[in-house]
Design a protein that fits this description.
three-stranded mixed sheet; 5 helices; 40% helix; four-stranded antiparallel sheet; 19% strand; Adenine-n6-DNA-methyltransferase TaqI, Chain A, domain 2; 2 domains; alpha+beta; 171 residues
Length: 171
Amino acid sequence: MCCSIIKGDYLTRKDARAGSIPVILGGQQPAYYIDKANHTGEAIVVSRSGASAGFVSWWQEPIFVTDGFLIEPSDVLRYRFLYHYLKGQQEHINRNKRGSGVPHITSQMLSSILLPIIPLHIQDNIIMLLDSLLSFTTELSKELPKEINARKQQYEYYRSILLSFSKKQVA
């Protein structure tokens, strides 16, 4: 077996004390924060149910997984490689949601995903490249709104200058 699929622990907000540990409750962002973790270190989490069922996320901090699956690779797979691979399978995972009212993902569905087992040094190279591209994309998406705003201001400035005619010029 090349990875383990571990179901999160049951927890309700009323049973927990507030803290700084994110609770992964089936969404794309932490649902709330509590005072204890059920996982530390690298973590791949797949949301189990709800609108974001099947969403694959990456964590490098203590977390509490409740409505999700922790995916833990064996020694033949790097965490980050497995994360990138599962993100690439996001559409496939989403297509396999079950349930009409509250969609959900099963551990059996996740177990059916075939994983490539390639040498660790090649996984390391793939991780380096994909992390670099992801970082570039993230930076670009942060800067793009600023650039769009700057071009809009530039357009408005030149429009104002180029279309401001004195009354003598108009006549």
